[in-house]
Amino acid sequence: MSKQEQLIEYITSDIISYIMEESKLPMVEAMTSFYNSETFTKLNDLETGLYLESPLYVYDIFKTEKAYGRIVQEEM
Question: Residue 15 and residue 12: Cα distance in Å, rounded?
Fold first, then answer.
């Protein structure tokens, strides 16, 4: 397993835990929600570099995607 794959797995695991904790979802539902998201697709695309970010940063992107139905670049 490559370092990139390990980082993606660690981030994914953390995010699933965050979803379960915050949304009170069972593990299978939390996994399904994240695995079927655009955020997960982007996380697995090594060209985005998203796997280099913190799990909380990626989780914020996921929450924004869930709120707006797509990934939205928030204004700064």
Answer: 5
Query: DSSP letters of 7-75?
Result: HHHHHHHHHHHHHHHHH---HHHHHHHHHTSHHHHHHH-GGG-GGGS-HHHHHHHHHHHHHHSS-----
Its pTM stands at 0.91
Rg of the chain (C-alpha set): 12
Region of 24 please: left (phi>0), alpha (psi -120 to 50) or beta.
left
Taking the alpha carbons at both ends of the chain, their separation in whole angstroms is: 37
- Give the lowest-confidence range in 2-6, 44-48, 64-68, 71-75: 71-75
